[in-house]
Amino acid sequence: MIKCVILDDELLAISYLKLLCEQIENVEVVKAFNDPKIFLNEIGHIDCNLCILDIEMPGMTGLQVAELISDSKKIIFTTAYKEYAAEAFDLNVVDYVRKPIKKERLIQAFEKAKELVETPLKKNFIEWNTNIGKTVIFTEQIAYIKTSEIDSRDKDITLNDGTTIVLKNLNFKNLLEMLPAKDFAQVNKKEIIALASIKVFSTNEIISTISTEDHTFLKLQIGEAYKSSLMELFGK
User: What's the DSSP call for residue 37?
Assistant: First the structure.
């Protein structure tokens, strides 16, 4: 479901846009504004995943508004002026729809938005309290994660270069939500492996590329509850 908020200084334009949106499946207009300042004061408290912004408005343009909210909301621009297109796409918006807006063109814009809303991009790093303080760890550097033997609330991360960092008081469920699903898999109740660190796997065991103290490679036992999801990751 696309939950959108409309911002346009012309009430007639808002009414027309709402009418079009009501005719499109899985689109809900949560609220509409005709004042950018009021919009900015309230948008942080509104449950929506898309904003439709008019560009040409008195006092504050849609481009200026977008710069303030683009980190948290997907944006579609509407405008009667084609000269704003380059600036609009510099802000990495979903789409740029020329007025007068046609229903078919708006549907195309919503289809683009739907893909982005349903598959949000994961950050390429996690940020958490660790044994060395608040730390940013780039996920591509993570080889392996296990529950700490000292305190089960903590998680030991092994990086590609062998460095170990302890994430303080973080459960696997929340940790997995931070990690790109295509790059990591939980193997059992106590271990997560980066797929790039897997050398060989069978139905019961994974042999990793991670060296151990006795100069062999780390082996992980696959828990029964995790076998099917692991097989799916590898297309089995």
Answer: H
Q: How far, in Å, CA of 156 to CA of 144, rounded?
A: 8
Q: Which token pair is 51?
A: 């904003």
Residues recorded for the chain: 236
- 153-176 pLDDT, tens per residue? 999 999 999 999 999 999 998 898
Judge whether 69 and 43 are in contact, CB under 8 Å.
Answer: yes
- Residue 121, helix vs strand vs coil: coil
**Alpha carbon distance 33, 75 (integer Å):** 15
Residue 120: other Cβ atoms inside 10 A: 9
Q: Are 183 and 194 in contact (CB under 8 A)?
A: yes
**Model pLDDT for residues 177-209, shown as the tens digit of each residue:** 889 888 899 999 999 999 999 999 888 999 999
Tokens of 30: 């949560």
DSSP assignment, residue 44? G
Per-residue pLDDT of 22-80, as tens digits, reads 999 999 999 999 999 999 999 989 999 999 999 999 999 999 999 899 878 899 999 88
Q: Strand, helix or coil at 17? A: helix
